[in-house]
Amino acid sequence: MEGRKNCFDPSKTPKFRVELHVHLDGAIRPETLWELSQRKGLFLHGSQEALCRACITECPSDLPTFLKPIAEYLPLVVGDAEAIERIAFEFCEDAALQHILYAEVRYSPHLMASEHFSPSQVVESVNRGLERGQRTFSIGVRSILCSIRGRPGWSREVVQLCKEYRDRGVVAMDIAGDTQGVVDTSQEDVEAFQLAYQLGIHRTVHAGEDGPADQVKFALQQLHAERIGHGYRVVEDEAIYRRCLDSRVHLEACPHSSLLTGAVTDRGMKHPIVRYAEDGANFSINRDDPTLIQKTLGDDYALLRDMGLTDVHFARANFNAARSAFLPHEEKSVLLEKLKQIYGVEDTTQ
């Protein structure tokens, strides 16, 4: 049955959080995947427990290996309006249960489309689920539409979808996929982001995760990126890192993900997110792909606490996230006021 018992009680939650980097197709409940597999006769594994184990990435690998389970289970929702609406609705419930006040969830409309179910229909289905989830669980959620590197034509279509649905909860575009090369984004993708810039569509870019710091520079200069997804390798180039610090570029950090994707391999060195915190960088704390990691946002905070971050750093990260959210000015002001009341401070950002 869709949904869980809603035990979310705002009056008993002293601190709320803002999350800006989480993938919808990487945030599907394993029990939902199992139920869909049974209903559709697509038996991926012999039991729900086996399916869950197959999804989870427990050991550090590389980004393609980390993402491999999504390709295996995504056919369960591809082209299925009801299933897509359901996972969007359940995303809202799970976020509310983790004390998330506001979230921006991203996905590729093309990856969930089929021959008879267009990317536009995917967006419509996600929107229905998010709209219903927001009402039911008293949470704010907006969506970001992703293009994928190496997929001709997708980026321009994503721009048009962002334009079409900008008044129905779609707040930005992104591009994800392989970033191991320095300039691995096609000219077609560059032109799409430049068009988005001209149209006033917000932009975030996966960069500096499994690719070099120059990828971040390319995203800022050529794609007009306002935020950077992950960006850990930027600390390897002091000039580019200093530019991010000075211009307050927002870095969407994902603690557990950074270790499991191989983005951060040297456990003996200071983690880039610790550098972000110590240097007063504009960064947030996010789950990335919770289906694959099976960790809550609270687990990500606990991991960073073990690395030395404090409550002050966490408060700053949430104010940073609210300031960098792709919301209209009025809605962003309301979100910031809520955070001020929750944290009992005027502002904690530097």
UniProtKB/TrEMBL annotation:
UniProt KW Metal-binding keyword: yes
Signal sequence extent: none
Keywords: Hydrolase, Metal-binding, Zinc
InterPro entries according to UniProt: A_deaminase_dom (IPR001365), Ado/ade_deaminase (IPR006330), Metal_Hydrolase (IPR032466)
Pfam families: A_deaminase
Organism field: Trichonephila inaurata madagascariensis
GO cellular component labels: cytosol; external side of plasma membrane
Name of the protein this chain belongs to: adenosine deaminase
GO MF term set: adenosine deaminase activity; metal ion binding
Family statement drawn from the similarity comment of this UniProt entry: Belongs to the metallo-dependent hydrolases superfamily. Adenosine and AMP deaminases family.
Cofactor(s) named in the record: Zn(2+)
Domain annotation Adenosine deaminase: ranges: 17-341
GO term, biological process aspect, one: adenosine catabolic process
Keyword Transmembrane belongs to the record: no
Enzyme Commission number(s): 3.5.4.4
